[in-house]
């Protein structure tokens, strides 16, 4: 209740800032919106209001778009740029994984989604592993495009009045774009991926885990492309191959560490498409390890994954308020 009282005046202020086209969006306003979305994901209804994380994220997305536009037309100083770069990484992680988790953007935001990721330049190598996201800027650019493509295909594949999901086939435009993104993922994965400059010193095992996490997010992107856009069945080698690679990466991650917590999205992706009981058992064990941290979205994702195993259904139509990340 204390949090609810604290934030009750924040939402109108953020909306007012967004509505005033002359007002420059501050890093403070942007940080507040991103933080509110994060808190709603890990602790729903913490504000005392039943506002889904998708709405918080839509507000953060609109503010981010305005903030990036302000930075391009004003000279606000290097420190402001650095702060915005940090907030961009935090937001990009939430936005891309939220979109891949079924968080539908509103129409006014979706037009700018790809532009945000492609035009914002933090000054870092796009193949550096971002210490906030756990994967490279290039990877998040590709995942953003996969999310948009998967959203459109999901609407066709699962929409009312259409063919059964198993009978759906993508149009030639989707197939061509999916194959392009497949190649981009493989090219990105083949690049050397040094850690970002914010990390001054890191132990060898920690470095290895960050590289493995980056690799696993690439493989997860391939699974989403092949299942949700190309319509391949779960037993297809093009799906099971990446699933095996994700599990192999997971096996090299230490239980109970921060890397394991950041592995939720690849784990969920592999788990929902794993057919081997041994693989499922390994993934479930790791889910329960991460779940002990107390974050609500982990528990919901684990329940959804187990429902997929029992029902044999795809996970997308079963989604409600889950955020997988």
UniProtKB/TrEMBL annotation:
InterPro entries, alphabetized: Fun_TF
Record-linked Pfam families: Fungal_trans_2
Record carries keyword Oxidoreductase: no
GO molecular function, one term: DNA-binding transcription factor activity
UniProt superkingdom: Eukaryota
GO biological process annotation, one example: positive regulation of transcription by RNA polymerase II
Subcellular compartments: Nucleus
Keywords annotated in UniProt: Nucleus
Signal peptide: none
Entry GO terms, CC: nucleus
Main location: nucleus
Descriptive protein name: C6 zinc finger protein
Naturally occurring in which organism (per UniProt): Colletotrichum tabaci
